[in-house]
Amino acid sequence: MEKPFTLFSALGSGGVPVEAAMTLIGLPYAIVEAPTWEGEAEQAKVAGVNPLKQIPALLTPEGETITESAAILLWLADRHPEARLAPAPDSPLRGQFLRWMVFVPAAIYSLFWVRDDPSRLGGPDPEVQARIKTATAERILDCWGMMERQVSPGRYLLGDELTVLDLYVAVVSRWGPRRVRFYEVAPKMAEVVKRVDADPRLAAFWEKRFPFFDGWERLGQQV
Ligand SMILES: N[C@@H](CCC(=O)N[C@@H](CS)C(=O)NCC(=O)O)C(=O)O
């Protein structure tokens, strides 16, 4: 029996694509549930492993800590080439794979630091906070639209094989401004994320870690 990994994560969070990748690879892992956006008690759970107090953070069986969702996904995919979750380093798809694996956290995911708590940049004024919510939602949609115009998906974003990029986009596109808006600005990528949502290998996993309840595609939608 392989020694388990420990993943600091939370339902519906940026840890979920990491959990999905580990599920597909078949790696044993234990979850420390830490929905950090809920406040200091939850942040305290992860502070010892990630000074930014953010999830995901992965502790490997060897005792190494890896933070940053994209780094964890790339590391897992590269360590497990048999799972075919990334184009090989010499694949012609590798450049675009790395490009979008960095684009998602740099251009989109990073905006959730302020979206989750607009007072971090906007102070206490509710009007300023509302403007930040609207402006960041528009920026996120612009970024998805830009990506949409630059990719030529097959069954998946880079062709006909599912990679960790598909898992990543399937999860991040469910956050505000939510999937209905994503479908409007990214119709080609919409087909891909719906295919990932419906992957039978992940059905039980999604049910447990990011369920598709009635109205999920628009719930909490803001702009
Ligand atoms: N760059 C980090 C961002 C991680 C992140 O923002 N995680 C969120 C949860 S999905 C979090 O922990 N937020 C709490 C905070 O930033 O205070 C990554 O890609 O892993």
Q: Concise description?
A:
By secondary structure, this protein is an alpha+beta fold. The protein is built from 11 helices and 4 strands.
Q: Count of helical segments?
A: 11
Would you give the CATH topology of the largest domain? Glutathione S-transferase Yfyf (Class Pi), Chain A, domain 2
> What's the number of domains?
2
Under CATH at level 1, the class of the largest domain stands as Mainly Alpha
Q: Please, what is the oligomeric state? A: single chain
Give the N-to-C terminal Cα separation: 48 Å
Number of strand segments: 4
**What is the mean pLDDT?**
96
> Which structural category fits the helices and strands?
alpha+beta
Question: Can you tell me about this structure?
Answer:
The protein is α+β, with helices and mostly antiparallel strands. The chain has 2 domains: 5-83, Glutaredoxin (3-Layer(aba) Sandwich), CATH 3.40.30; 94-200, Glutathione S-transferase Yfyf (Class Pi), Chain A, domain 2 (Up-down Bundle). The chain has 11 helices and 4 strands. It has a 4-stranded mixed sheet with strand order 2-1-3-4, sandwiched between helices. Helix 8 (164-172) crosses helix 10 (187-197). It is globular and about 50 Å long. The protein starts with a strand and ends in a 14-residue tail after the last helix. Residues 13-14, 36-37, 53-56, 68-70, 105, 109, 112-113 line the site of glutathione.
